[in-house]
Design goal:
Layout: E1 4-12, E2 18-23, E3 27-34, E4 36-41, E5 44-49, E6 52-56, E7 61-66, E8 73-79, E9 89-92, H1 96-112, H2 115-136, H3 146-157, H4 165-172, H5 176-187, H6 191-209, H7 214-220, H8 226-237, H9 241-249
Antiparallel strand pairs: 1-8, 2-7, 3-6, 3-8, 4-5, 4-7, 6-9
Helix pairs in contact: 1-2, 4-5, 6-8, 6-9
């Protein structure tokens, strides 16, 4: 695990603030929360604006400045090593709410100053670095639509409930057509097919981990007809529930 070399903290740069030129002695995760400025890193110029993040490494030559009327607000944490090799030079963090929550918890855990909290703080820095590696990839995944992810979680938590598409769309605050398009784009399945998949996955878990009969599982998952459940299960998995139980339990 990496070692934090200076306390993680949030600060607002003073009106006359500027950097450099300076040479970085250790690693520094430097995340802009607000404001406008520029960073010149090893001769290349980058914008420093809301949700832009840099990871400076030993030997980096840095100059930076900001607009004193739009002062930079920054989260920064220094640490000892960065072995990934990915360049994080002004990467735009798209899931800013998640990244900001990691930063706040990192700083709070460090301030708590117990051995466990200090380890947690270092682990959160590593999590932030991994998140930046994903963001820096050319094919970084899109930011999750919280409205759709909330519906997905509800279905997976209780696949046995009735989940009419109009009701799901209303929960997401979307029209039925908008909801269906977005849900399909996020999950790769239409809502009805996703529900079937969720029920089958839960059925497989119950077959493996419990002594519930196939009829009891079918009933628990919202099927009125155990034979229909068995047919649908076989269509998805390629085998009936009894054969699946035998394979899973040995």
């Amino acid at each position: 695990m990496l070692k934090i070399t200076a306390a993680p903290r949030f600060y607002r740069c003073e009106p006359g603030w500027s950097w450099g030129p300076l040479t970085m002695p250790d690693c520094d995760l430097w995340y802009v929360l607000a404001g406008e400025g520029t960073v010149e890193l090893n001769g290349r110029r980058f914008p420093a604006s809301a949700h832009r993040c840099f990871v400076f490494v030993p030997g980096d030559r840095i100059k930076a400045a900001h607009d004193p009327r739009r002062r930079l607000r920054v989260f920064a944490v220094h640490f000892d090593r960065w072995d990934n090799g990915v360049e994080v030079h002004g990467v735009k963090v798209r899931d800013a709410a998640f990244f900001g929550a990691l930063a706040r918890r990192c700083a709070a855990s460090y301030r708590a100053n117990t051995p466990a909290c200090r380890r947690q703080s270092a682990a959160l820095v590593e999590q932030m670095l991994l998140h930046l590696c994903v963001e820096a990839e050319p094919t970084a995944p899109p930011v999750v639509d919280s409205r759709i992810s909330g519906v997905v979680e509800m279905i997976q938590e209780e696949p046995g409930r009735r989940w009419p598409v109009p009701a799901l769309a209303a929960r997401a605050g979307l029209s039925r057509s908008q909801f269906t398009r977005r849900f399909t784009a996020v999950t790769g399945l239409a809502p009805k097919n996703f529900l079937i998949q969720a029920r089958v996955e839960r059925a497989k878990q119950l077959l493996c981990e419990t002594d519930m009969t196939v009829s009891q599982i079918a009933d628990a998952l919202g099927y009125r007809d155990v034979y229909f459940f068995s047919r649908q299960f076989a269509q998805v998995t390629g085998q009936p529930p009894t054969a699946c139980r035998q394979r899973l339990t040995g």
